Here is the input.
Amino acid sequence: MVRNAALVLLGALACVLGLELLFHVLPVSTYTDTGYHVDPKIVTYRPRHEFRVSWGWNLEGPIRHRANNLGFLSEKDFVPDPNAIALVGDSFVDASMLGPGDRIGDQLQRAVGTRPVYAMGGPGSSLLDYAERIRFASEKLGVRDFVVVMEMGDIKQVYCGSGNIHGPCLDRKSGEPRVETQPPPSTLKLVLRHSAFLQYMLGHLRFDPMARLRKAVTFNEPPANPAARGYFAGMTTADMDRILAIFFERTAPFRKGQLVMVVDSNRVAINRGETAADPMRDHLIEQARALGAEVIDTAPVFRKHVESTGLHLEVSPHDTHWNPLATRLVADAVASSLSAR
Here is the structure.
């Protein structure tokens, strides 16, 4: 019995080792080495770090990336230049799923011409994190003009524990500001992150054994209240006003030129031909304009494109980030707004 168990265990280990070697040959996504490399409240890649990304079980669209001198995903280094434009956002700006030339920063660079565009994307971040990047761009690079790309969850995700926080956040109960930095990885995690087999299982197949266990334990619990769904579920206009007020207050000392805010839209509804209003989103746009931002509402831009061409603006059915068509449309709208001043 013991001998048979030992043989089974050895066989399993040999299989895992073989898969590890195989996935090292295949274009599996590699360790991105993110952390507080350039600022204690800003998560970036390690400067000059090279990594590879691909998608899905079939390792679709492999791309090799290299972070710049400040750890952002950009083809250019960022140097002090008051004529530069800082483009701030989350994975919509980082856009590691797109190749060089297709990301919003590259598209905006072509649209504005000679002015350098500094794409400062940070996957898994939200609005108050963007304020820190604006502060950093102003203090370290002398930037005066800023473009903020807001995806639909950026307001609600500012609450601590949302899973989309790099540093500053708001306490869910009291609403008071806090700082919630990500803990450094343990030595074991650092070692395991270099495993191509684990990267494939966790990143490509989204196999999370702990999530499966939690789902099994809570199988008989009643489903969540359908009314609790939505980008702004559980929020009031007062909540939104307070979050926006904090963002504008924190960025006020550094906004010495233009602030353009690009607000993403419900592209699922647009693709279906639906035109239902979203009062909370409308309030967000109205309030941001009242506080001094130039707001680009992507809804009419995207709707016109989809209705006239029939082409969707997502990377794929499984990835709702902007594809190159969408980034070009947004870049042209931003460039028009900047040149109008």
